């Protein structure tokens, strides 16, 4: 982290913040991340990048929003957000594009930002649909997923947790994304390996093998309350083998059964306006239900509206 770029102090001299501290994705994004302090203690974090004179909740990260300490009150959250907007205004940046943190990733209610976006007349620009399982109240698994699991057992498939990503990236994931979506993984093999080194217990790789050959896998981001499948992919025989059904029932029943939630991620395409029906149906077969993640555009010139909230 680069904390040497001091930016500003609030009028009451109790708030200050630093800019540009994220080294991750530095080669692909022009960082504009902020960390905010109150009386020398960090109280809020805003991962962000700048592109074409617009600031975004970091486009290289899955989730966004402003992360705040658990004791921060609404007035302080409003002050932090106004400082961010004032900084953008001072640097002649007209728009802030912010994505919300999905509610399941916070142990406490965190709709302060949602309220502030309302007061700022923020424009909803995108809404993604995430498939989530409440692990404490799991619905029944569908007959299709059970049938897939039985096929996998019949084919003698095996799930292994591994510490390297090379086989999954090079033999399964990259080629599938290229063929189906003409796309690449958000994380390169080098980046995901670096993340694993930095967070060895939080980035986990589970592969499925048939006769010692990899046939499917998923990369899990393991947080305190949520296990999130960041990447899910199988070879061309995945439906015949039932490999992905087998893998995820193993994860749900054996590995992450004590989590609060399991997050399959989005099935959206076209900037959230469409849903891959087959993929979404597959996730719902495990008992997943839908929550949303919203994206907003804020006119920085509307920042004075935050001055009129408290009466």
From TrEMBL:
This is Uncharacterized protein. It comes from the Bacteria. It comes from Kordia algicida OT-1.
